[in-house]
Amino acid sequence: MDRIRTWFGGLEPRERRMLQAGAAVVAVLILVGGVLMPLGASLSAATARRDRQRADLVWMQTHAAEIRAGAGQLREPANEPPVVLVDQTARASGLAAALRGTQPSGADGVRVQLEAAPFDTLMIWIAKLDQRHGFAVESITVDRAAQPGTVNVNVTFTPPHP
């Protein structure tokens, strides 16, 4: 550091002023290019994001009644027989180990037996069957299983109504 001070002190006053002015210009460029421009870009992006979210909120508020009215009609098309669809969704939901039987019941109804099924997983699966495929629970029997948090279940689903 002393070598720099000695070198700087040995410069002509005019050279020192030019060097100081050049250092100030570099500092300003670093401040503008490295701090202020990225900050401005982030602010612009945040403002645009906020404006999009406000527009989305206005649209949702305007169409809320229409969305609520149509929510029950959003069903996934069933390309499989009801008994196959119920069995596949049970396995996909993580109930394969608990599944003891899936069989037709009445006209397009489905009866399912599960042993030691995790209760929370079972409830989520039943809700998905209703919401995504239109199956309703016609009857259900739930008994506590030996392991905490698990249940033995016999459930009959009614077919979806078109």
Find the structural class using helix and strand composition. alpha+beta
Low-confidence stretches: none
**Helical region count?**
4
The radius of gyration over CA amounts to: 34 Å
Shape: elongated
Distance between the termini: 85 Å
If you had to describe this structure to a student in words, what would you say it looks like?
The structure is a single chain. By secondary structure, the protein is α+β, with helices and mostly antiparallel strands. Helix content is about 55%, strand content about 20%. The protein is built from 4 helices and 4 strands. The chain has helices at about 1-10, 15-70, 80-90, 120-135, and strands at about 100-105, 110-120, 135-145, 150-160. The longest helix is centred in the N-terminal third of the chain and has 59 residues, at about 15-70. The radius of gyration is 34 Å and the shape is elongated.
Brief overview:
The chain has 162 residues and is an alpha+beta fold. The protein has helices spanning 2-9, 13-71, 82-92, 119-133, and strands spanning 99-105, 109-118, 136-144, 150-158.
Topology readout:
Elements lengths: L1 H8 L3 H59 L10 H11 L6 E7 L3 E10 H15 L2 E9 L5 E9 L4
Antiparallel strand pairs: 1-2, 2-4, 3-4
Keywords:
162 residues; four-stranded antiparallel sheet; 4 helices; 57% helix; 22% strand; elongated
